[in-house]
Write a structure and sequence with these properties.
Layout lengths: L3 H11 L5 E5 L12 E2 L9 E2 L3 E4 L9 E9 L14 E5 L11 E4 L9 E4 L9 E2 L10 E2 L8 H9 L4 E5 L3 E7 L3 E2 L10 E2 L2 H11 L3 E8 L3 H9 L6 E5 L13 H4 L3 E4 L4 E2 L5 E5 L2 E6 L3 H19 L10 E5 L3 E2 L5 E11 L2 E6 L9 H5 L2 E5 L5 E2 L4 E6 L2
Parallel strand pairs: 5-6, 12-15, 12-16, 13-14, 16-20, 18-23, 21-24
Antiparallel strand pairs: 1-11, 2-10, 3-9, 4-6, 4-7, 5-8, 17-19, 19-20, 21-27, 22-26, 23-24, 23-25, 25-27
Length: 398
């Protein structure tokens, strides 16, 4: 049986990024950028005012108050070609407007009498005051290397400032989502009170969408080996398939036997972890397939840790695996050695210390525990007891 870290390494190795498409940058938030970008412009384009006020010569303000002649008004975006500030002169100027020649400072409006023809500057203004130098925010030709990152509103704004109109991004993966089990009701049968409802698939689809995938629900396959085999063989046009249930060792766990029925190749079929020990990963005709245990906590955990990593990998992301935080245990934890345990816990900030409180039961069938908590705590396989106050890795999921 492999470890969780080995499982993640295999997934990263076997899954390759998809192709690249060019889309309007304005539509690219949360997409993974495929290439760096060379800035086409400087920001600011010219020396500019950082304040509303008056463009002045610093030496004219050395002995305040100074009375200066106002030559005119310079709005943001207007040309200052031909405008020159001489001795005893100034121009009223708006934030973002270009600095005219001869001027080397901006007197803030609040420290003037706001005159129209003549203005009184009430304080001295050293050279360079309230001036944004050309290119200080971004230089023409500067390399913006966000390749492999999911674009945020802030990186998008940076790229737009650099003159980017389109973004080369990795294609979003299409994810087939299925559940198995004769006892499970698909949406069309939700009024059937004798069946369990398929709550796993909506959770898997939501996690897939958050990771950047395009999930498609393909329903519930009954406990029938041929029907399951036919359903898997019919998957076309997808980049990843996720199946919930049927992966254990029961008489009707047919997903675990698909390697015999349709030559599904498993890269691994168990992981030394709780929850989600039966989690399996393989491929069928080049399509990566993840098979999760049917217990809801197991499915959600495997989707959170492994499916997210796969979807990010398909999108060419540099960082595919969730980064843990360090937390201090708020109470003792005890486990049998031999498995990496991922305990549900509530992370709370107590006097600046991130403190983790494990849920009262870690049964993989108690879905409410996921709602009551906000993180999984990683407890190494060689540890059976962790005392209150010890440090643990916490993977926050909400």
């Amino acid at each position: 049986m492999i470890t969780p870290s080995e499982a993640l390494s295999i997934i990263q190795d076997k899954i390759k990024p998809l192709g690249v498409e060019s889309i309007p940058l304005i539509n690219a938030c949360r997409r993974v950028l495929a290439a760096p970008f060379l800035s086409r412009r400087s920001v600011p384009m010219e020396d500019s005012s950082a304040m509303d006020g008056y463009a002045v010569r610093a030496e004219d303000t050395l002995n305040p108050p100074a009375k200066l002649k106002v030559l005119g008004v310079i709005p943001a975006g207007s040309s200052v070609e031909g405008v020159h500030i001489g001795k005893g002169e100034c121009c009223k100027i708006m934030t973002g407007a270009f600095i005219p020649s001869g001027s080397d400072a901006v007197a803030q409006k609040e420290f003037t009498d706001n005159g129209e023809d003549l203005v009184e500057i009430k304080t001295s203004v050293p050279s360079g005051t309230h001036i944004r130098l050309a290119g200080e925010n971004l230089a023409e030709g500067e390399l913006l290397n966000f390749a492999g990152e999911r674009l945020t509103p802030f990186t998008m704004s940076r790229l737009v400032s650099a003159g980017a109109i389109y973004a080369d991004v990795y294609r979003k993966p299409r994810v087939a989502v299925l559940s198995t089990g004769t006892e499970i009701a698909p949406p069309a049968e939700y009024d059937n009170l004798k069946k369990m409802l398929d709550s796993n698939s909506p959770a898997v689809m939501a996690i897939a969408e958050e990771a950047g995938g395009i999930p498609e629900y393909l329903g519930v396959i009954p406990d029938d080996q041929k029907k399951l085999a036919d359903a898997l063989l019919s998957l076309k046009g997808f980049d990843l398939a996720v199946v919930s249930g049927g992966i254990s060792v029961g008489d009707f766990d047919f997903m675990s036997r698909m390697h015999e029925a349709i030559n599904l190749k498993w890269h691994f079929d168990k992981v030394s972890q709780k929850p989600g020990k039966p989690f399996s990963f393989g491929e069928l005709n080049g399509l990566p397939i993840m098979a999760f245990p049917g217990n809801p906590v197991s499915t959600v955990f495997c989707a959170f840790l492994y499916m997210t990593a796969a979807i990010l990998r398909l999108q060419g992301a540099n960082q595919c695996v969730c980064e843990p935080e360090s937390a201090v245990l708020g109470e003792k934890i005890a486990h049998k050695k031999g498995f990496v345990n991922y305990d549900r816990a509530k992370l709370v900030n107590e006097n600046g210390i991130l403190t983790a409180y494990p849920y009262k039961t870690q049964s993989s069938g108690i879905f409410f525990s996921l709602l009551a908590c906000n993180a999984f705590l990683e407890i190494p396989s060689e540890i059976d007891v962790l005392a209150k106050g010890e440090t643990v890795k916490a993977y926050r999921y909400k």
